[in-house]
Write a structure and sequence with these properties.
The structure is a homodimer. The first copy, chain A, is an alpha+beta fold. Chain A folds into two domains: about 5-95, Glutaredoxin (3-Layer(aba) Sandwich); about 100-220, Up-down Bundle (Glutathione S-transferase Yfyf (Class Pi), Chain A, domain 2). Chain A has ten helices and four strands; from the N terminus they run H-E-H-E-H-E-E-H-H-H-H-H-H-H. Chain A has helices spanning about 5-10, 25-35, 50-60, 85-95, 100-125, 140-165, 180-195, 200-205, 210-220, 220-230, and strands at about 15, 40, 75, 80. A four-stranded mixed β-sheet of chain A has the order 2-1-3-4, sandwiched between helices. In chain A, helix 6 (about 140-165) runs parallel beside helix 8. Chain A is globular, with a radius of gyration of 18 Å. The interface of A and B includes residues 65, 67, 109, 124 and 132 of A.
């Protein structure tokens, strides 16, 4: 007989996320890929095999016992969990992508939540008024928000992570002496910012060499490199969080 | 001899947060108060006793091993942790404000992170362009953002929590059969929205009776009620997250 716990460990995880953008799902994908953890990217499967947008509508409509507000969601056996930072911590804890001790986990979660705040602010540069309206309908506000983001927020966040790398074990990672899931997320943000705001990001990273080096080190890891070179990696595009509009990056 | 762990359990927690607003610190204060957990609200002490704004500058400047991006921060013996949802989960786990089983904790964290997203969106109604600028300098954008928040986002978030209460143990709480820290946070958001957007919130809560009832039940809990009637509870005001500007709540 297989216990519920063993059976949930044996089933591949199911990631439910929009099939055409990196978005917040990408933070989860990177943990799964770096960890060599089997998963199914459900909505990227054909509709006739249960994939596509239907899969997303279905899980968001199925309130179950733990309804999610938004994707990404992860099905892990009987567990269905949402919120990006929560899913990442769940996977990292199970699969050795965060140190074992309690203090490191609180510290990792603190950093991850700060990464997610940074992501929200990066997103809101192109949607400062409403996520229900087009960028074109909020372009003037976007220019002003992007200016504040580039001049004040990006340096503040990157400066913080620069210090956090310095303050730790001085091994070049954010938590402890090895790469953790938080490093993968910071890598993703750096590449996203380079895509969206190439000019401003280049300037900022000159002042944040630890962060730039960390991103390069993550990118060179064999599992990450293989993933980035595969078709599984969706290119950055103007439907995602990090969008390149040249008028926002003078 | 006292072990490091015992000694950290005996020292009162130190909460470091802006002394004149509820802000994000209030979510932590509510956990401490409901739990009957001794704490010192450091920056609300006199400057000559190590309090005041100096205490905040000091902890944000002291990078230590786990620097924080922003307050609230919590000192718990040797641990210094930040990020509101992280601090709340830490305290709730230690002090019985969340069920013991792993599944409930992932679910609670998922809900808490959604509360925090809601808080960020409520905040950004009055600061859609830049936190470094005055409200008056972004008032036109604020009107548009507040309209989208009231018409689309508030009903979506409150509708989600309404379903989450329904989907659970049907005891009227968000997680399990007892109040957890997440309920305290949802209470705080409801009261904040009622302060900031009395008209829109009244309309929304008609469609979310579970949420309204939960907020009332939290407010009636003896420790919470005593706190709310004490001088420790800072009144809502126009420096915090939830600000009442009548032009944003037609």
């Amino acid at each position: 007989m297989t216990s519920a716990d063993e059976s949930s460990a044996q089933q591949p995880y199911e990631l439910i996320y929009w099939p055409s953008i990196q978005g917040r799902g990408e933070f989860v994908r990177l943990v799964l890929e770096e960890g060599g953890i089997p998963y199914e990217d459900v909505a990227r499967q054909p509709e006739e095999e249960g994939g596509g947008m239907n899969a997303i509508q279905e899980i968001l409509g199925d309130i179950g016992q733990t309804p999610g507000f938004a994707v990404p969601m992860l099905r892990a056996g009987d567990l269905v969990i949402s919120q990006t930072a929560n899913i990442c911590l769940f996977l990292a804890t199970r699969h050795g992508l965060v140190p074992d001790d309690e203090a490191s986990r609180w510290h990792a979660n603190q950093l991850q939540l700060t990464v997610m705040d940074f992501v929200t602010e990066a997103h809101d540069t192109h949607h400062p008024i409403s996520v229900a309206d087009y960028y074109e309908d909020q372009k003037e506000a976007a220019k002003r928000r992007a200016k504040a983001f580039i001049e004040l927020r990006m340096p503040k966040f990157l400066g913080y992570f620069e210090r956090a790398i310095d303050a730790g074990a001085r091994a070049g990672w954010l938590v402890g002496e090895q790469r953790s899931y938080v490093d993968l997320s910071l890598f993703q943000v750096v590449r996203g910012l380079e895509y969206a705001f190439p000019n401003a990001t280049a300037r900022c990273l000159e002042e944040a060499p630890n962060v730039a080096a960390l991103a390069d080190r993550v990118e060179a890891r064999p599992n990450v490199a293989a993933y980035l070179n595969s078709e599984r990696r969706i290119p950055f595009n103007e439907d995602g969080i990090f969008r390149h509009y040249s008028e926002l990056d003078p």
